[in-house]
Amino acid sequence: MAVVEKSPMQTEHGRDRILRVAANLFLTKGYAETSLRTIADAAEMRPASIYHHFDSKDALLSEILDIGMHAVTTAFTAAREELGSEATGRQQLQAHVAGHLRALFANQAFTAAHVTVFPFAPADVRAASVPQRDEYEALWTDMLSHIAPGLGSDALRLTRLALFGAMNSAVQWFDHTEGSVDDLAATIVDTLWHGLAPRTGGTS
Amino acid sequence: MAVVEKSPMQTEHGRDRILRVAANLFLTKGYAETSLRTIADAAEMRPASIYHHFDSKDALLSEILDIGMHAVTTAFTAAREELGSEATGRQQLQAHVAGHLRALFANQAFTAAHVTVFPFAPADVRAASVPQRDEYEALWTDMLSHIAPGLGSDALRLTRLALFGAMNSAVQWFDHTEGSVDDLAATIVDTLWHGLAPRTGGTS
DNA sequence: TTGCCAACCTAACGATCGTTCGGTAGTCTG
DNA sequence: CAGACTACCGAACGATCGTTAGGTTGGCAA
């Protein structure tokens, strides 16, 4: 599996280590703001050594974005296949939100980098990632249009963007070692499903 | 009567022009990715001239962020004062969403820069903007907690983040010269207010 | 043992960065 | 007219950037 599931042990070597520390630095400091010398320091190497594993700084970022988008796409299709055909719309939504969140927390820097780093990535790198991003976006749009068929195209887009805004920001404040990711998913879905309108006769 | 429009005409000079072109460049290309030479080119100046108006590149960014946050904060309080005390929760929400959106489209680069540029701004600049950001965030949290008193603190935060995600992303796809900003606000509020659940039979 | 190759190193390259210094026009004041 | 001030400019500074050239090392294969 390309998905990084190793714990960040000191035993990690070479290529994988570069990828992990670079992803974290790109996420927290930004792409242009992170120099190869900083990456090399964090990976306990010299800058030149990075070029033994990657063609360029751009290629390194490109691979990081690939890993991240692959992780969430895999999570999405896995959630879909685990759902029975009799699942309600809300159950489908919750399964996919939980899948996205789990992928987000399991591969933090790789997936989260898409939110913050992508917009400012060099044009070449950005262009290479666009098809994967569009594909993932389409998966969500498709699912949402099925479970909420009454929504217009603007409302559909806004719902997706609002949902992504809530999910992706969670990585910045939610402590997944304390709280349950499934509970978080339930809260997100619950809020989005019922809306803000005063509940007339809700249970619990 | 003299025309007092301050549209971004070619007649714009010096300081204001630097601010506007820099804000647009920071928004589209990123802070570190935009050099002072690029800004100077866009403002039809030489790089050294910028230092006649601003102490440093950081100071320039700091002022841009200030302008943007001031615009949305002003829009928020203006919307609140225009509301009568008998306004429903939904009317309050809609007025503030419309205010935020109008401020966003009127000062595009300045306000939008907060979304994309702020996270990677130099630590000093970021620290200087944090209080204003927190203040604006608190305005929304406070309002949301009043119009949806049933929400827990996590749900409240998620609602705010989802709302911001929807509103702030609009700047990237909504054409405010064609569609009405008020209609957009209505769509956002409608979606968030009623939720995704199949509507039972309520009137508009 | 010899040869090879992946992994890493030191040292330096040219380019670009933010910034500074010392000017020069134009305009307003007295 | 002299002086001051605003707005801008040309040219350069040191620092840092991504990148490359040319080693050195250790382990495995034959």
What does this structure look like?
The first copy, chain A, has 204 residues and is mainly alpha-helical. Chain A has a domain at 65-194: Tetracycline Repressor, domain 2 (Orthogonal Bundle). Chain A contains 9 helices and no strands. In chain A, helix 4 packs antiparallel against helix 5. The longest helix of chain A has 26 residues, at 57-82. The termini of chain A are far apart. Chain A binds chain B through residues 29-30, 32-33, 89-90, 93, 116, 119-120, 144, 147-148, 150-152, 154-155, 157-159, 161-166, 168-170, 173, 184, 187-188, 190-199, and chain B through 29-33, 89-90, 93, 116, 119-120, 144, 147-148, 150-152, 154-155, 157-159, 161-166, 168-170, 173, 184, 187-188, 190-199. Chain A binds a DNA duplex (30 and 30 nucleotides) through residues 13-14, 35-37, 45-49, 51-53, 56-57.
Write the layout of secondary structure elements.
Two copies of one chain form a homodimer.
Chain A: H1 14-29, H2 36-42, H3 47-53, H4 57-82, H5 89-106, H6 108-116, H7 123-147, H8 153-173, H9 181-194
Helix pairs in contact in A: 1-2, 1-4, 1-6, 2-3, 4-5, 4-6, 4-7, 5-6, 5-7, 5-8, 5-9, 7-8
The structure holds a DNA duplex (30 and 30 nucleotides).
Would you kindly provide a brief summary of this structure?
2 copies of one chain form a homodimer. Helices cover 70% and strands 0% of the residues of chain A. With 204 residues, the first copy, chain A, is an all-alpha fold.
